[in-house]
Write a structure and sequence with these properties.
Largest sheet: 4 strands, mixed
Shape: elongated
Structural class: alpha/beta
Number of strands: 6
Strand order of the largest sheet: 1-3-2-4
Helix content: 55-70%
Length: 324
Amino acid sequence: YYCLKWLIYILLFTCFSFFVQMLLSEKVGQLMDWASKRAVIRMNGDKFRRLVKAPPRNYSVVVMFTALQPQRQCVVCKQADEEYQILANSWRYSSAFTNKIFFAAVDFDEGSDVFHMMNMNSAPTFMHFPSKGKPKRADTYDLPVRGFAAEQLARWIADRTDVVIRVIRPPNYAGPLMLGFLLAVIGGLVYLRRNNLDFLYNRNAWAFAALCFVLIMTSGQMWNHIRGPPYAHKNPNTGQVSYIHGSSQAQFVAETHIVLLFNAAVTLGMVLLHEAATSDMEIGKRKIMCVAGIGLVVFFYSWLLSIFKAKYHGYPYSFLLMVL
């Protein structure tokens, strides 16, 4: 009796293992077939539940939850999708490509039930579903802080899966062409004015160029170049667009443009005050310049403090504008 009982257990276990292996082979084969056709596998609710959520699974899946349809007007989703495609294609055409990890995407209009199931209230969102166990907090990509650049996503994936992806970007000739065009314009101007190069010693021109460089750097453009943050954030549920990030650890591209304009306005106010104090113009014009300069400095500096206070919660100081 006991021998028969153990024999039945062994047969059941063998049948179950065989069934699991067959099911796993079918899922991996289907994913490999789709991945060979397109680097990012588009999924609806049924595919997501069957291939990502349901066991068995001996592979990891990185999923981008997005909203790419034109009526959603999600500019950030399109920008993030471009970087995600670069990352997935870098893995697909890599010599190290295996079935250890797959890249997928769920669009809100094709899988709204998945968004509800995962309690997603914003897009784009990147999540890693490990081969074993449930996703942890670190398996949700911190998009506002790290940005959506393909290189940043690759580092995050390396941390979560030990899969190292070397990002290969398609050649972009826009930068070299613009630089060549700028050098050609400067060279042409110098050639046309070769008999009179006094403009090269114009202090106002050099001061303006230096001021533009300082404003660009102090507004956070270099941070944008390194991190690749989204331009703004649109809540897919409410449709509200945020141009200022609520955290002191991140920023949007639109935020740097706003800060640049505010800094430029404060600088213009200081220039007007200096001109009002030192120029030989009529007293009436100097008064107007003085009032305009004070107004620009006071208003836009107050606005800058308001932005700083909104990002650094608990900052005690403000001036005129109490709320952003």
